[in-house]
From TrEMBL, chain A:
It comes from the Bacteria. Pfam families: BPD_transp_2. Keywords: Amino-acid transport, Cell membrane, Membrane, Transmembrane, Transmembrane helix, Transport. It is a multi-pass membrane protein. One of its GO terms (cellular component) is plasma membrane. This is Branched-chain amino acid ABC transporter permease. InterPro entries: ABC_transp_permease (IPR001851), BCAA_transport_permease (IPR052157). Belongs to the binding-protein-dependent transport system permease family. LivHM subfamily. GO terms for molecular function: transmembrane transporter activity. It is found in: Cell membrane. Its main location: membrane.
TrEMBL record, chain B:
One of its GO terms (molecular function) is branched-chain amino acid transmembrane transporter activity. It comes from the Bacteria. This is ABC transporter ATP-binding protein. It comes from Gemmobacter lanyuensis. One of its GO terms (biological process) is L-amino acid transport. Belongs to the ABC transporter superfamily. The keyword Transport applies. The keyword Amino-acid biosynthesis does not apply. It holds the Pfam family ABC_tran. Keywords: Amino-acid transport, ATP-binding, Nucleotide-binding, Transport. The lineage of its organism: Bacteria, Pseudomonadati, Pseudomonadota, Alphaproteobacteria, Rhodobacterales. InterPro entries: AAA+_ATPase (IPR003593), ABC_transporter-like_ATP-bd (IPR003439), ABC_transporter-like_CS (IPR017871), BCAA_Transport_ATP-bd_LivF (IPR052156), P-loop_NTPase (IPR027417). Residues 2-231 form the ABC transporter domain.
């Protein structure tokens, strides 16, 4: 394969990676931006989404139906679990930034080991809902992967609409700016926090359901999305959705292209170097507000 | 209208308010004065449920407020303009107003009434609140509170740092609201402003209500101001 087609293939792979990463990272960015909670368990919500997708797909005999059911049910289940965790755990800690880091570290182990106990250590495949292959002059490419990009873009568009055009988004943004004043205007901040935490976890679950026909589900799969989400959120600027999307595109594309052309470790080195440079020269991130 | 009885409270274990009793009647402006640290802002925050209240009662038209969570207090009809305005700076003027309207206001009708009071805000509806001038920001803070259609309005130093024309506009608005029957609790440091607008003046000292007196008959260089405000 010539350099041009190879670069095109790498770009396509990077775009898929960027789309899924953007979903997971926006979820993390929302919970930090609105709640000031660094959710170390975010990767485990991603993992739960994937493992539950396998369980739902097993329960529904037809592959397309099983996938669609998983795409609807898993984010709702993971979101509901996150809502309960916020109400039962994080609220009791008064959403204190330091205490919640420790709590979500503990939570990540509980979720991980819970998934191991319930679903076992094996990687579980989930069948893609369709097997369309797009035949380009130089290579064939999975139609499902392109579907992942489109689906992720639609979900992100919906998140943008909610945040900028809906009452729920208005309330979330007001809470993000000043929670005491938000309360003085009748906003139930605890409910906003629980809803935001649930939305963030739900987005991670959507990302996982979309990726699981490509990657398989297993109980340790939350590490990479967590690390990359943090890298993206730090580069983009904590709490900035626009920054998160742009950073996800850069890191996702870089990962796809570098992994295709060079050993995959180089892509991780690039991401880590990028985050280090941002932390040194622009600690608030590319689009974050200066504290 | 708003009744505060033997209220004590503060920030965590630090007690600031001690046994504060005050009534804010309908259609009157009650001014709270006192030196820095006397507890004026803390009293406002205690009414809004933003700080720990260790004892005492707060009631609005006979309904107790002290057991309600903070977000329920404005829903009962108490509007609050905090010190320093505390606008949602990254949000537009229209969005700031919407925050007030969605909680309690009567939608478009309330919005129109509020914008009629502050026509300049109508021209700036799509502008970010943080980019307004100081006077416009104060107008917006007041307008946002009025979007709650409040029976009681708490104003914490609303004329601080404003130019004279803007101070006059804020005073005129307060007078209009008082004439409409709104009960107003105003924290103010300028003696002249207080004498122009207040029906009663409550002096605080060391977290206690030291003296409450009708504004009529007070003079700018009176001993009472010397004693409690230091002017």
């Amino acid at each position: 394969m010539g350099t041009g087609p190879l670069l095109l293939l790498a770009t396509l792979e990077g775009t898929v990676m960027a789309a899924v990463l953007a979903l997971a990272a926006v979820g993390l960015s929302l919970s930090f931006g609105v709640m000031r909670v660094v959710n170390v368990a975010h990767g485990e919500f991603f993992m739960l989404g994937a493992v539950l997708a396998w369980a739902v797909a097993q329960a529904v005999p037809s592959a397309p139906l099983g996938f669609v059911a998983a795409l609807v049910i898993c984010p709702v289940l993971v979101g509901a679990l996150a809502y309960a965790i916020d109400a039962g755990l994080l609220r009791r800690l008064k959403h204190d930034p330091e205490a919640t880091i420790v709590a979500t570290i503990g939570l990540s182990y509980i979720l991980q080991q819970g998934a191991l106990s319930l679903f076992g250590p094996d990687a579980r495949p989930v069948e893609a809902p369709f097997t369309l292959r797009l035949q380009l002059p130089w290579f064939g490419y999975s139609g499902y992967k392109l579907f992942v990009v489109v689906a992720a873009a639609l979900v992100l568009l919906a998140v943008w609409w909610v945040m900028t055009r809906s009452r729920a988004g208005l309330v979330m943004r007001a809470t993000q700016i000043d929670r005491a004043t938000a309360r003085a205007f009748g906003i139930n901040v605890d409910r906003v926090y629980a809803g935001t935490f649930a939305l963030g976890a739900g987005l991670a679950a959507v990302a996982a359901v979309l990726i699981v026909p490509i990657q398989q589900a297993h109980y340790l799969m939350g590490h990479d999305p967590l690390l990359l989400s943090f890298i993206v959120v730090i580069i983009g600027g904590l709490g900035s959705i626009r920054g998160t999307l742009i950073a996800a595109l850069v890191i996702g594309l870089a990962d796809g292209i570098l992994s295709m052309l060079y050993p995959p470790t180089l892509a991780k080195i690039f991401a880590t170097l990028a985050v280090a440079l941002v932390l040194v020269f622009r600690p608030q991130g590319l689009f974050g507000a200066r504290p | 209208m708003l009744r505060i009885e033997r209220l004590s409270g503060g920030y965590g274990p630090t007690q600031v308010l001690r046994d504060v009793t005050l009534e804010v009647p309908e259609g009157e402006v009650t001014c709270v004065m006192g030196r820095n640290g006397a507890g004026k802002t803390t009293l406002m925050r205690a009414i809004m449920g933003q700080i720990t209240r260790s004892a005492g009662q707060i009631s609005l038209q006979g309904q107790p407020l002290q057991s309600l969570p903070a977000y329920e207090v404005p829903r009962q009809g108490i509007g609050y303009v905090p010190q320093g305005r505390r606008l949602f700076g990254a949000m537009t003027v229209a969005e700031n107003l919407e925050i007030g309207l969605m909680t309690r206001g009567k939608g478009a009708q309330t919005r129109e009434t509020v914008l009629a009071l502050f026509p300049r805000l109508r021209e700036r509806l799509d502008q970010a609140a943080g980019t307004l001038s100081g006077g416009e920001q104060q107008m917006l803070a007041l307008a946002r509170a009025l979007c709650l259609d409040p029976a009681v309005l708490l104003l914490d130093e609303p004329t601080e740092g404003l130019q004279p024309s803007m101070i006059q506009l804020i005073r005129d608005t307060v007078t209009t609201l008082r004439d409409q029957g709104v009960a107003i609790l105003l924290v103010e440091q300028r003696v002249e402003a207080v004498l122009n607008i207040a029906d009663r003046v409550a002096f605080m000292e060391h977290g206690r209500m030291a003296e409450i007196t009708p504004a009529q008959g007070l003079v700018p260089d009176g001993a009472i101001f010397q004693r409690y405000v230091g002017v």
